């Protein structure tokens, strides 16, 4: 039975990189501001007389003021896009990532084979050592 041989050169240096901190979830939560903006726009277009609000976020929004009010949402989207683009490997294609996954799976398979071979050699060495110690104690 042939056991896999361990590699002749084992690199003891492993690079562990800590991923950059993820942006907070609020960075990507744009639906509530969009909903509030549309609600204000609908309030202004309704036929009922507009109520007087002290909070401008609750007041109706006229169509001509929409671009100004939407600018904050656009900025929020730009920040979210920039946060995503700053994450590692965002420039890699799916094909490249799948190729790396296959390489890593193959590497893990080879490492498991080496470990199994070392386990077998260790068990064989332990058996030889046990036989020798039994032979010494008997004789």
Structural features, described:
The chain is mostly helical and 139 residues long. The chain contains 3 helices and no strands. Helix 1 (31-45) packs antiparallel against helix 2. Residues 8-13 have low confidence and may be disordered.
Query: Count of helical segments?
Result: 3
Secondary-structure element pattern, one letter each: HHH
Give the biggest beta sheet.
none
Q: What is the β-strand count? A: 0
Distance between the termini: 32 Å
Question: Looking at the structure, what is the overall shape?
Answer: rod-shaped
Measured by DSSP, the beta-strand proportion falls in: under 5%
Q: What would you report as the Rg, rounded to the nearest angstrom?
A: 33 Å
- Overall mean pLDDT: 81
Helix coverage percent of residues? 55-70%
List low-confidence stretches.
8-13
Structural class by sheet pairing and helices: mainly alpha
